Amino acid sequence: MNYELIRKLLDDFEKNSLTEFQIETDGMKILMKKKSVNNVANFSNYIPKQVDDTKIDIKNTQDSYDIKAPLVGIFRTKNSNSENEFISVGRQVKKGDILFIVEAMKMLNEIISPIDGVIEKILLKDGQPVGYNETAIILRKLN
Amino acid sequence: MQKKILIANRGEIALRIIRACKELGYKTVSVFSEIDRNSLHVKFADESICIGSSDLKDSYLNIDHILSAAIATKADAIHPGYGFLAENMDFVTAIEKLGKIFIGPSSETLERISSKTKSKMLAANLNIPIVPGFLESISDFDDLKTHALELGFPIQLKADNGGGGKGIRTVSNLEELKNSYDIVFNESLNSFGRSKVFIEKYIEFPKHIEVQILGDKYGNIVNLGVRECSIQVRNQKIIEESPSSFTEDDLINNLIQDAMNIMSNISYVNAGTVEFLVKDNDYYFLEINPRIQVEHGITELVTNIDIVKEQIKIAFGNHMKISKSNVSINGHSIECRVNVTDFLTGNKINEIVFPGGNGVRIDTHIYTGYEIPPIYDALLVKLMVLGTNRKQAILKMRIALEQLIINGVNNNVETLYKILHSKSFIRGDYNTKTLENDLNYTGDDINE
Hints:
The structure holds two protein chains of two kinds. Chain A is built from one helix and twelve strands. Chain A has one helix at residues 3-15, and strands at 20-25, 28-33, 47-50, 58-61, 64-68, 73-76, 92-93, 98-104, 107-112, 117-122, 129-130, 135-141. A five-stranded mixed β-sheet of chain A has the order 3-9-8-6-11, with no helix packed on it. Chain A has a five-stranded antiparallel β-sheet with strand order 4-5-12-10-7, with no helix packed on it. In chain A, strands 1-2 form a two-stranded antiparallel sheet. Chain A binds chain B through residues 71-74, 104-105, 128-134, and chain B through 31, 34, 47-53, 59, 64-65, 67-69, 71-73.
């Protein structure tokens, strides 16, 4: 695979709505990802609201972070019309990435990652109720 | 699928409702604030969900949080208990809009009785006696003065949306009138956001009698007799009895008839109470409490009807099987509200021993090791007894109080015990002000 081809792939990827693209050929593996800035829940009648991360209760035990729900509601790990989960166990997240959504009173409250890390545990399933200050996700910090 | 009921309350009433739901085969969801994590209602429900911090506005008074919990747990119905959001029209309207069942009257009914003057006007139109007064809002001090002189002192100034002892003032002479009016006006504005104040004649030393009503969605209305709640400390009831301490049957019958009349008139659905003041041979309509009441248990004891179960069945659209012909009052019941008096010795229940035996009922949420959150109400235990007559009930209550041991938290058991031995109480010769004056321990023998 030559440089020209890679550049063309990048260009096409950039224009495409895909957020992730992987190709394996001739013993070479290329993985392209876009920053998930637009990966916001988009139910048209719902109002997404980013929760101020100072309000999110994070219990830091050494490198392990408990990410708790800042309000009561329904735990969501994907957009309603999408099959893609924001997160899965083992996936890397950057500070500011969406970890999950708490749906309450037709508002989608996005809970964002306070650190660069790896998802260690997801304690709830998509669609389950989540209580105030209930731990939903455990993150391991990446150094 | 098994239906699910969310209980939007805490403490003993949440447990009471959970038990009724279980008996009827409904699943239960408890909601709790952070400080209530170790409370029994959290452990006894099928599911529990934390709805917010210990701040009331963030939890038990937060409509959005409670509704979010109801949606998330897929609850079919919500029981509000008493206090908190039980009579909140916005809450009830929101539940109705969500297509869920509110276990209580409709928002339409609540609107019709949403203020003291609205309810009184309703009663007056049905020729039910109300306390003499002027129900129009007073804006001018000269008007107020004229009305006060016409009624004769003492008078009472009341905020239309007042409650819980706020926005009410007794005035005994003309000199105090201006100052009292300003206080009530401002209290009303600050506490209830509105400032309508009206004037009434003050009824001195009344008895407080209330009628328990049940109504279903098909126009059936039934009364479960009366309760007397005259033993009060600063307008808070502490001892109640059913039926009542006195036996003027005609007066009681008339008052029950009027209660039935006003509730039929507004097509009342679910459990509700009509409150009256009684003075000598007169009675006056006071208000309608559109919810289950703390003291409902003593009515259950004398009627053998489970009011909370009836509430649930009615809300789910069942026809009420109770009618006039199958309500009978058997015996006499008394309730003592065992309250925390202060937290000077701490807030942890180190030891608790409950009385028991034939005709003793205890509704409580406390247990050994429980730490009482100091931010909610003072109620520890509702101790109830059923005797074959009033005298037997008094004797039973005295023994029950002797055998109730609560260590760790200061409480009013001794005060209750003294009242159960006082001449005034034994003779039924007491009113809402007696406790503040002379309801003291005399060691009187009940057989006297």
